[in-house]
Amino acid sequence: MEGYGAIDAVVNIWTREALAGRPDREAFYTGKVKVDRGTFEGISLDEMLRRMDAANIERSMLIAAKVGQAGHRACYHVPYELVADAVRLHPDRFLALAGIDPTEGMDGVRALEKAVRDDGFIGAHLYPHWFELAPDHARYYPFYAKCVELDVPIQLQVGQSLIYDKSYPRRSVGRPITLDAVACDFPELKLIGIHIGIPWADEMIAMAWKHANVFIGSDAHAPRYWPQSFVNYINTYGQDKVIFGTDFPVLDFGETMRQIDELDLRPASKRKFLRDNALRIYKLDGAA
Fold first, then answer.
1. Whole-model pTM above 0.85?
2. Following DSSP, what letter does each residue of 182-222 receive, concatenated?
3. Nearest to 48 by CA among 246, 228, 209
4. Cα separations (Å) of 98 from 49, 79, 91, 179, 287?
5. What is the pLDDT of residues 144-192, one digit of tens each?
6. Distance between CA atoms of 154 and 131, rounded to whole angstroms?
7. Residue 248 clears pLDDT 90, i.e. is over it
8. Torsion angles phi and psi, residue 212, rounded to 5
9. Is 70 exceeded by the pLDDT of residue 288?
10. What percent of the chain has pLDDT over 70?
């Protein structure tokens, strides 16, 4: 066990209250990604903290996710206030990320600004495939500009989309190469491509190598299945560009940490990946 706690940068709040507005996703969570039924049905914040402690995870970034356009039967928005309340209850353990719905236009931009300025949110989060708009689409640009103004990073899911609802399939619009134009247009914007970019992981690595403002989140795919090129990147020339995440409950905290231990990363690279890079990128207390 290392002498430091990890920072999990991608975590879904999973209380029963947070799940109340979600469409049924049982086939996906308990079938495709093998989440146990007890977890799938919801856990308390105290239970989440217990699991984090057991896995030596010091802090988690909770996402107030906006999954598709509000009002569609297959989509849902987690209220910002619900995540803000969790952070207020446990300010030393939880951090808040504000989901983005590009169809909200300037109302959404103003809501993002309020979340950061008034409610302590530390960044934004985006699921491009739920809107079938690639990351370089113009409808995102007002949100990107606001993130620059607020000096907060934005996470974007890159890689393939999955089918959560067979009546509402979404195209895989999140090719990592689409971050290239965004990074060029907004060189001050910290862009974090989460979900590794699989099946285009090498493309995601290329974007992070090219652009000083592009980073990679390791969530949603079990470490034992990571491409070897990605493991090498974490361990060597990309050691300052990758942050740890689980996308809990997609990945279990403890099992994910055990699998990372099995990768036999260099101690300095491992610490940057699990903790220091997130502290630096998000300008959190404890950053070097």
1. yes
2. HHHH-TTS-EEEETTTTT-HHHHHHHHHH-TTEEEE-TTS-
3. 246
4. 21, 9, 16, 20, 22
5. 999 999 999 999 999 999 877 777 888 999 999 999 999 999 999 999 9
6. 16
7. yes
8. -65, -25
9. no
10. 99
Amino acid at 195: H
In whole angstroms, give the CA distance from residue 151 to residue 157: 20
Tokens standing for residue 107: 């109302």
Q: How far is CA 125 from CA 44, 57, 140, 247, in A?
A: 23, 21, 12, 12
Q: How many CB atoms lie within 10 A of CB 111?
A: 17
Residue 229: C-alpha distances to residues 198, 234, 274, 277, 278 (Å): 12, 9, 18, 19, 21
Among all chains, which residue has been given the structure tokens 């990679």? 216
> Exposed, middle or buried, 142 (CB in 10 Å: 0-12/13-18/19+)?
middle
pLDDT at 287: 60
Label residue 73 by pLDDT band (50, 70, 90): confident
- Segment 42-59 mean pLDDT: 98
Report the C-alpha gap between 18 and 92 in whole angstroms: 21
